[in-house]
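TA notes, week 10

Several of you asked for a full example with nothing omitted. So below is the full record: structure tokens for the whole chain, then the designed sequence directly under it. When grading your own attempts, check the secondary structure regions first.
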């Protein structure tokens, strides 16, 4: 099995499934607000749902069997709650769009070693948390050596949407341990692809 010790040999994330009160409202939200697009769903399923795709990942919306009792609507936007996060091209543009669409959101700022990261948190129609951020400004610094489980310092590479395919190739190479890691004892400038 390929991958790191203890790994299941995974190659990528495929999809996220969300149980919804209303497939139509959730589909519209993920299409209109986040830019996902509908894709064909197997006709053999015996339950209502919709499949969407965007940003290299699938989103499977599943109709709740008991919409009023099985999906709890969250009222408070809590950035420490379960959420999925998306990178964006412009935080200013995102904030303007959220305001225009009248989407209630919470804004947070993280500062680490002089790097400022902006975050917007908001809910989908069922209360599932979404984050939009510019987190790609933070370097990815593993706590341990990927191949030898020793302490390391890795120079992180910033990611952008234009290098998504290259990232996926690098992640595959990483899982096969073909990337060099800069050790604390060395001043090697090898780069780790963004995860």
């Amino acid at each position: 099995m390929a991958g790191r010790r203890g790994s299941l040999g995974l190659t990528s994330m495929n999809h996220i499934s969300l149980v919804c009160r209303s497939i139509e409202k959730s589909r519209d939200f993920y299409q209109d607000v986040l830019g996902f697009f509908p894709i064909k769903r197997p006709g053999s399923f015996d339950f209502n749902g919709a499949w969407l795709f965007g940003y290299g990942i699938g989103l499977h919306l599943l109709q709740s069997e008991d919409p009023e009792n099985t999906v709890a609507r969250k009222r408070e936007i809590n950035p420490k709650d379960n959420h999925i996060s998306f990178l964006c091209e412009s935080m200013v543009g995102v904030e303007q769009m959220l305001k225009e669409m009248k989407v209630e959101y919470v804004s947070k700022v993280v500062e680490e070693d002089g790097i400022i990261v902006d975050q917007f948190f908001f809910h989908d129609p069922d209360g599932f948390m979404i984050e939009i951020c510019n987190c790609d400004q933070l370097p990815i610094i593993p706590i341990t050596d990927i191949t030898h489980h020793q302490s390391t310092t890795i120079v992180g590479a910033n990611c952008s949407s234009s290098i998504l395919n290259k990232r996926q190739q690098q992640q595959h190479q990483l899982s096969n341990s073909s990337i060099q890691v800069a050790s604390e004892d060395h001043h090697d400038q090898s780069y780790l692809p963004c995860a």
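The chain has three domains: 9-66, 73-138, 139-195. Use that as a sanity check on your answer.
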